[in-house]
Amino acid sequence: MLRECQNRRGKLWQFAAVFAATGALLLSGCASGTNSSDSPSGTTTAAADKVEEIANTVPEAIKESGKLVVGVNIPYAPNEFKDPSGKIVGFDVDLMNAIAGTLGLTAEYRESDFAKIIPSIQGGTYNVGMSSFTDTKEREESVDFVTYFSAGIQWAQRPGSPVDPNNACGKKVAVQATTTEETEELPAKSKACTDAGKPAIEIVSFDGQDAATNAVVLGQVDAMSADSPVTAYAIKQSNGKLEAAGEIFDSAPYGWPVQKGSPLAQSLQKALEHLIESGKYEEIAKNWGVEAGMIDKPVINGAVS
Length: 305
Hints:
The protein contains 10 helices and 12 strands.
């Protein structure tokens, strides 16, 4: 589930759009750091104060450069996407800026194809990846991960029109095309319906998550299924026109990939522990409406499968 392969991560959610039909506006977050494809395009103030004890654990080469080079693939709202000015923003961005600030560094974001980020970390082009990577056993063979979030699948519905994700037989459910929700979750649930002699789920696919979300708001479908942070963000931006349908399920950890054996993993872990203790982590998560996925303690290589 989640960003487990190029196809899954290739959702490329286009949620950085306005709900034009409903008047619900996208709220752009404030990001710090540097956005870059090949070279920096501008720097702003780090989002957290340097903590000397933690900053001293950063590998010397990175410390001397003064920057944390971050490979990122967008769009993937609310975690990483571009605001109307073209600046990279999102939950992941705000959190990484706070991590970099704690380490006495400035985050420099370099856009990349998702599939190229881990190989580029292995080759030393990037220090760390930040693209809502699901920490998996398979990926841990190539890189180390520092967990920072727990994401699963969650449904959304219109208030007053309840839908049970575990018994949606005969319902119309919106998804983004090529996602696990479309290719695995809903087909399996629909088959369970027909095997029991009940009506199949009508899976309504859209090229972009914004269109799938609008379909629910406009009453064209009964519900939508998406990864939990995306659903949470959609609900937050809907001005009361959407609500959660059931709890988050099939959860797995998001992690930041770094070179295998790099002490940077410990530095990132300590920085996140500090942000959790200080309340900054919770503040950032709540700002983006993704607090349901907060974790209590980051670990190195915490894959569950």
